[in-house]
Design a protein that fits this description.
The chain is mainly alpha-helical. It contains 9 helices and no strands. The radius of gyration is 18 Å and the shape is elongated.
């Protein structure tokens, strides 16, 4: 049982790394199996198709992002708006780490796949939509808390949080296009202006 779990995890880890570094279309099942050290028959034992693997990779990527960035960013040891600023700082550090290790800014794994597959595979599009909705939740909760504390004027916190997630995704894409994480450091703090410019709806 342990060995079976390890084989599946190797496939997930390998696919996750390859998709992030390149693209969905740029990586085939044969290459994933070769780099994971897994026979092709074993691949199809765990994942009936590349789509099924991709859905599992999205879940794995989301769990990792939630545990390593979101939970740290939105810990309640600082005021709510400082948590959003901390989210941007953690995003910046992640992109610096990836760039220093690989020479490239790879962007957001969710944004990358959304751009590549959302018009081509409905099940993947729906999973990405759900992930971005889950991403919005802690941002919205921080905004709700800031409004309740009087740190922000009344506003549509759901729409504002959605706009903030969209800003993060766009900023990450620009950083990828420039191959420069400094884009996130320089422009990240401007995210709070979205909560002070009035109605986002």
């Amino acid at each position: 049982m342990i060995r079976t779990h390890e084989t599946r995890q190797r496939l997930l880890d390998t696919a996750q790394a390859l998709f992030y570094a390149r693209s969905y279309e740029g990586v085939g099942v044969q290459e994933i199996c070769r780099q994971a050290g897994v026979k092709k028959g074993s691949f199809y034992h765990f994942f009936p198709s590349k789509r099924d693997l991709t859905l599992a990779v999205l879940d794995e990527s989301w769990n990792h992002f939630r545990d390593t960035i979101l939970h740290k960013a939105f810990a309640r040891d600082v005021p709510p708006l400082q948590r959003i600023k901390r989210l941007m700082e953690l995003q910046y550090r992640h992109h610096v780490e990836v760039r220093d290790k690989t020479g490239h800014v790879y962007g957001c794994p969710f944004g990358n796949l959304a751009g590549e597959l959302s018009t081509r595979d409905e099940s993947i599009r729906k999973r990405l939509k759900a992930i971005l909705s889950d991403f919005r939740q802690p941002v919205q909760e921080a905004l709700d808390e800031a409004v309740a504390a009087g740190d922000l004027a009344q506003l549509d916190t759901q729409a504002t949080a959605s706009a903030m997630v969209a800003y993060i995704e766009g900023l990450t894409l620009v950083a990828k296009a420039n191959n420069d994480p400094e884009v996130v450091r320089k422009l990240g703090p401007a995210i709070l202006k979205l909560a002070t410019v009035g109605d986002t709806g």
